[in-house]
Design brief:
about 350 residues, alpha/beta, six-stranded mixed sheet, six-stranded parallel sheet, 12 strands, globular, binds 1,4-dihydronicotinamide adenine dinucleotide, binds 2-oxoglutaric acid, nucleotide binding, nucleotide-binding, Glu/Phe/Leu/Val/Trp_DH_bac/arc
Length: about 350
């Protein structure tokens, strides 16, 4: 792939390739934009089929973090890491320590945390080599339950828009991916009286959710065609695409997965079909709000949750812009984030003697 062309097209700052022969580490740290502050974004460990696929994932996820951090009102830029490997087989102390040393070498330009395939335990090892890691034990911990809390509030805002009432009681919700976020989300939905239809590629994850939350299981490729009120993608990205859109029978798409739209045009098609799409980086910003609280030096769960519940208002704001300007919600969200980056960028360019 033409890496510099891609970086130029989307205005990336830095791409770091990290290799260590002792541990077998192959990691890519992408820093998209640091106008608002140091780049913060989690680390994903995944079995990519090609190196290009891993590079593209790191770049797309990093850019998403720039928009997410801006939309969440944080003074943070956007970055992300991918580690190429199987999270079930390839983890070791040396791998995460080698990675931690690369994060440290960036001197605080990039701060890392958990993402798919990574746990708090892994980040505890990374911490041995770097000061620039959040989501730690005894501090903010695993961001996933808080991400789920934000998704839950965002879903309620969508329900208010579509059904005139924010209650999710009796609503049929199809959840794709029952990992850290998806399973926590199912608990909020079950407690409110929603009917859950779920799927995952790991049987163990399915078993727990089906048992605890009276959920119905469907095969992974069947989840798109479920007739439901809300489809909630909580696995990987690009699941809203040319193949899946014709199958969808939902009123709302609201889930935690990053980069849900395969291409921007898919957001346009959803609007034409009358499906309300809650932009991924707005509805799933709870995790980053939570880990960013750790940077204040005195993490308080209640304060973090209060901020995260405001995702409800942010989703309503995006819907308002979308209706007023007659544009898809993903563009409305981009405008909201870009406006903040531009204004803050200008304000912060004023000279102040330190
Ligand atoms: N953990 C967090 O706080 C945040 C997570 N996200 C995003 O939310 C999504 C889920 O994150 P986590 O729950 O942390 O990851 P996770 O790794 O704990 O869970 C992902 C789940 O998706 C399942 N999965 C993968 N491919 C699938 C498929 N084709 N069909 C059905 N299930 C499939 C996996 O088996 C796994 O159980 C990711 O896209 C992540 O980037 C976004 C913001 C914060
Ligand atoms: O929630 C996290 O783990 C940190 C932020 C992040 O990587 C994300 O929101 O995707």
């Amino acid at each position: 792939m033409e890496i510099f062309k891609y970086m130029e097209d989307y205005d990336y700052e830095q791409l770091v390739f990290c290799h260590d022969s002792v541990s077998g580490l192959k990691a890519i740290i992408a820093i998209h934009d640091t106008t608002l502050g140091p780049a913060l974004g989690g680390t994903r460990m995944w079995t990519y089929s090609t190196e290009d696929e891993a590079i593209i994932d790191a770049l797309r996820l990093a850019r998403g973090m720039t928009y997410k951090n801006a939309a969440m009102g944080l003074n943070l830029g956007g970055g992300k890491t991918v580690i190429i490997g199987n999270p079930k087989k390839d983890k070791s102390e040396e791998l995460f320590r080698a990675f931690g040393r690369y994060v440290q070498s960036l001197g605080g330009r990039y701060i890392t945390a958990e993402d798919v395939g990574i746990t708090v335990d892994d980040m505890e090892i990374v911490k041995q080599e770097t000061d620039y890691v959040v989501g730690l034990r005894g501090k903010s911990g695993d961001p996933s339950p808080v991400t789920a809390y934000g998704v839950y509030h965002g879903m309620k805002a969508c329900a208010r828009e579509v059904y005139g009432n924010e209650s999710l009681k009796g609503k049929v919700i199809a959840v794709q991916g029952l990992g850290h976020v998806g399973s926590a989300l199912c608990k909020f939905l079950y407690d409110e009286g929603a009917r859950l239809i779920v799927t995952d590629i790991f049987e163990e994850n399915v078993k727990n959710v089906v048992k605890e939350f009276a959920a119905e299981y469907v095969e992974p490729d069947k989840i798109y065609e479920i007739k439901c009120n809300i489809f909630s993608p909580c696995a990987l990205g690009a699941v809203i695409n040319d193949i899946t859109i014709p199958k969808l029978k939902c009123d709302i798409i609201a889930g935690s997965a990053n980069n849900q739209l395969k291409e921007p045009k898919h957001g346009d098609i959803l609007m034409q079909k009358g499906i309300l799409y809650a932009p991924d980086y707005v509805i799933n910003g709870g995790g980053v709000i939570n880990v960013a609280e750790e940077l204040t030096g005195c993490y308080e769960r209640e304060r973090a949750l209060a901020k995260v519940s405001k995702i409800y208002d942010k989703i309503l704001k995006v819907i308002e812009i979308s209706k007023k300007e007659n544009i898809p919600t993903y563009i409305a969200a981009d405008r909201m984030a870009e406006e903040r980056i531009e204004k803050m960028g200008k304000i912060r360019s004023n000279y102040i003697r330190k």
